[in-house]
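Protein modeling request. Please complete all fields; requests missing the sequence field cannot be processed.
Requester role: graduate student
Desired output: 3D structure, token encoding
Chains: 1
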Amino acid sequence: TTCPTNYYYSLSQLKCVCLPGLYYNGADCVSCPNNQYIMSGGSSCVCKPGYYMSNGYCQQCPGMYYSNGGSTCADCGYGYTSINSASQLGCTICPAGTYQPSLRGAQCLSCPAGRASLAGAFCCDGYYHVGDGVCAPCPE
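Delivered output (140 residues):
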């Protein structure tokens, strides 16, 4: 069986279907618009990670915010940093020995000498989280 351009014949479905990476828009098999992709096995386009849907278009989340392709952006949370560059998008947990007391921290901070922390820490050992961006020494 011969299929049109952008289609292939599926032996399991016994018909011509869109090539991988393309979706059927009601008239033909086409690529997703900018900043969108097709999830594995999906039949429609969704926003790439780091982008959110706004007025029918995928917009990049502002710095220090992240989206898994939904309709809103959110901060990564305490103990995480946001990676929002052309090559990498997402939230990264701060490794042991570092902390991040801000909801939208750009990088993990090193614990002071002699102090430690577990991965994803808001503050280092001996400190407590006072509020966004602030760790204070524990009372003795």
